[in-house]
Amino acid sequence: MNQQPIFLKPVFQERIWGGSKLAELFNYEIPNTKTGECWAVSAHPNGQSVVKDGPYQGLTLGELWSSHQELFHSKSPVFPLLTKILDASDDLSVQVHPNDQYAGEHENGELGKTECWYIVDAEPGAEIIYGHEANSKEQLVKWIEEGNWEGLLTKVPVQAGDFFYVPSGTIHALGRGIVVLETQQSSDTTYRVYDYDRKDKDGNTRELHLEKAIEVTTVPQSYKQETYDTFSREGITITSFVSNEFFTVQKWDVHGAASLEASTKYTICSVIEGQGQLLLGDHQYALSKGDHFILPVSFGPYVLSGTMTLIISSE
């Protein structure tokens, strides 16, 4: 069994709403000042992470998944999760994602897209769109046809440290001035509902997908603020955000040295603040803000030390 963390090099995606905060906050070398997405842990065909070093250096995550299943012990035919960091320097389009069944039927077998957001950074006054005010499909269709976006869309103010679970069927959008770490199913299927009549660099408005969007949108759909369980012990505070059929997501705040046991699942780790070390026997691995790595099945026991915050996810 491989007993070392698997560090990954991210893939960057240009977006009409992107900016340069991925460089400013995480010291990434981004391709341009319209960089909207860091695909940090990805085996999706539209952008695959690559192993940085060690015995699997140079392999894409998809290649590692297919050739070394002993590291993962998963029943999924594809790597099922995708970890991103998004820089919403402008408003994202209002959108909705299908579930597995709908995507499988209408999107060439693609997975559906349930996701969640941890707000890393938010400018004063920043807000997201989460859910809608329509009480029926008929009212949803009517307000969309009328362009009654103020009446339809629910806006929620956000600040750093907030968490939002966004199941498939949820109308949603990040507003400008927000940076999030997103954990999602490994899917790139998005149905745009509204895009503020923006034009791309060629002067064209972006395609909307209203028929599919209306079909998959959950009605009714109101925003409800959640509370989360927090557990503290020596060196670490663990906040559990969500655990369901798609993923488990936690926040680990390390303050000192925390001894951790081996897990029966592979674990995706993203350092979003601070720095420290991962200690495994005689081996020490430096960790810094912006690092992303996978701990394979049965990794450990190990120690995390330093002052840092990580978002942790698994199947």
TrEMBL record:
Record's protein name: Mannose-6-phosphate isomerase
Enzyme class per UniProt: isomerase
One of the GO BP terms on file: carbohydrate metabolic process
Domain Mannose-6-phosphate isomerase cupin residues, every copy: 237-313
Reactions that this protein is recorded to catalyse: D-mannose 6-phosphate = D-fructose 6-phosphate
Keyword match Zinc: yes
Obligatory cofactor(s): Zn(2+)
GO MF terms, alphabetically ordered: mannose-6-phosphate isomerase activity; zinc ion binding
Domain of life the protein comes from: Bacteria
Cited InterPro entries: Carb_Metab_Reg_Kinase/Isom, Man6P_Isoase-1, Man6P_isomerase_Firm_short, MPI_cupin_dom, PMI_typeI_cat, RmlC-like_jellyroll, RmlC_Cupin_sf
Family, per entry: Belongs to the mannose-6-phosphate isomerase type 1 family.
Active site, UniProt feature: R192
Signal sequence extent: none
Annotated Phosphomannose isomerase type I catalytic domain residues: 7-118
Entry binding sites for Zn(2+): H97, E115, H172
EC identifiers of the protein: 5.3.1.8
UniProt keyword annotations, A-Z: Isomerase, Metal-binding, Zinc
Pfam families tied to this protein: MPI_cupin_dom, PMI_typeI_cat
Note describing how the cofactor binds: Binds 1 zinc ion per subunit.
Species in which this protein is naturally found: Paenibacillus lentus
This protein's encoding gene: manA
Listed Gene3D superfamilies: Jelly Rolls
